[in-house]
Amino acid sequence: xxxxxxxxxxxxxRQDGHERVVLRDVTLELDAGELAVVWGLRRSGRSTLLRVAxxxxxxxxxxxxxxxxxLAGGGALGGGxxxxxxxxxxxxxxxxxxxxxxxxxxxxxxxxxxxSRAFSALERAGAEQCAARTARELDTAETVxxxxxxxxxxxxxxxxxxxxxAGVDLLARDGILSLLRALADExxxxxxxxxxxxxxxxxxxxxxLTEGELRGSCAPELxxxxxxxxxxxx
Length: 234
What we know:
By secondary structure, the protein is of the alpha/beta class. It is 26% helix and 28% strand. It folds into 2 domains: 1-80 and 161-234, P-loop containing nucleotide triphosphate hydrolases (Rossmann fold, 3-Layer(aba) Sandwich); 87-155, no CATH class. It is built from 5 helices and 10 strands, in the order βββαβββαααβαβββ.
């Protein structure tokens, strides 16, 4: 089932009287259970692409749909889409568990249910050891896993991650990529942007973004290359 659709999306940024085309006629589809990675150099537009895909930033042209719904009226963060950005810290002074609880309580989730979901999300993200720590007490890999737990606690069907392995050492990086692969295998759609070729490991599709143009297979059924990881036979 297709969860995310970008159709001929264009985006421009304006700064100091100058205009720069960031995304140029981008088309992309992402299915449930699929892990897709978009590789691009700095200023290639990869972060903007993720913000548009998550409904955080509106495109200037084209359309973005999540589960068939147009995101033009606002994003679906916490309502089916989880977004993790590099360097995103936690709430000042609060430990990771409190953050996960507050995210749910603000939506009216009963406290016993919120606690159960929080511990489940931490366990699924491999971040149980982070529960009683604040963001400042986490190393780089733990920060990434805690951010993934924050997204998972609201049970998204689409997980969008901006550079989840940046600055993470080799062994910890492989563990994070394995986690994201497992989340896709469990049925989530996972979209990653990265500037590191090593982050392509385990992806079903690897695309590239150059000067705002997305290259590669825009839809799973149109893939012209073998996935980096073969799907298990049915």
